Amino acid sequence: MIVVSSEEIISQKILPYDLYDEKGTKILEAGEILTPGKILLVRNHEVLFKKEESHPQKIDNSQKTAYRKNSQENYIDTQENIKKYGPFNKKSKIDFETQIELKSGYINAMDMFNQSDVMRAKSMILEIRDKIIKDSQLIRKNVQFFSELKLLGEHKNIHPLNTAIFSVFLANKLEYNELQIMEIALSALLHDIGKVKLTGETSDLTKMTKDEESAYKKHPLIGHKLIKTELKLSENIARVALQHHERMDGTGWPYGISSTMISEYAQIIAVCNHFDNMTSSATNLEVSNFREALRALLKAGSRAFSPKPLYAFVHMLSYGDTTSFEELKF
Questions:
Q1: For the chain, percent of residues with pLDDT exceeding 90
Q2: How far apart are CA 194 and CA 36, in angstroms?
Q3: What's the pTM?
C-alpha cells in the first residue's frame, strides 16, 4: 500500500484508483467522480492509501457504467441539497451528511414552532443539541481552525447552529461538566428564538432603519418569554436569550446591565454569537477571514466580553486561520 495525500486526491475529477483508510478498508472505488461529499470524506481521514500495482487496474464497461450512474446520482443529490439548504463548507470537519441533518433539522424545528407545534419543535431542538454535542466530541481532536467548524447558508437558519457549535467547543475548553454543556448548547440554539415573532425583520442587520432596529432590539425580551412560557425551559436557558446582547461595561441592551449581573452562560454565548455574526457579514465590522474576526474580538476586549470566555475562545484553536469565507463554499 502507498500513502497518498488528500491534496493529490482532490485535485482529480475522477478517482483513478481504489482508496483505503489506515485499517485497509476501501472507502472509495476507482472511477468515482469526486463530488463535494466525497471530498469531505477524504478530508476527514488523516492518512489514506492506494494499492501498489504492477499493472494499471482494469475496469470493465459494466463497472464504468455503474460507477458513472452512481456518481451522477450523488452529484445531482449534492446539487439539490445545496439548492435547498444553501452552500456547504468543503473544509469542515463536520461531515457532509451531518451538515445536512443539522440544517434540515433546525429549519424543520422552526417551521413546527411557527405552526404552534411547540412540543414537536422542542423535541427536534433537543435532538439537534445532542447531535452537536456528540459530533463535537468525535471531531474535537482533529479540529485546528474555526473555518473547519462553521456551517454556511441563510443567516437566520445557520447562525443558531454555528453559535451552538462554537459554544460547545468553548464550554469544553472551559471544563464545564456534561449537564452544563447541554444547557449551554441549548441556550445557544435558542438565543435568537425571539426573532421568529418579529414582523418585517430585515435580513441585512447592517442596513436596518431606526424602526427596524427598534423592533429588532425587542427579540431578547420576546425570546426570554417564549422559552419560559411556551417551551417551558429553565431560567438558565431563558436568561441567555435575554442577555446575549448585554456588554460587560453596561453599554449593551435591552437593560444595560454589566459584569457579574450577566449570567455565565450568556457571557459564553455572547462571544460565540458575535464571532459568528462577524464571519457571516452580519455586523458593520469588515473582516475578510477568521483571523481578522479574532482580532476584532480582542479589540472589543473586556469592555464588551467577559475576559475568561473571551481569551479561552481566541486561544482554543489556531489563531492563524486566514481562510477567507469564500474559500469554504462548494
A1: 61
A2: 35
A3: 0.80
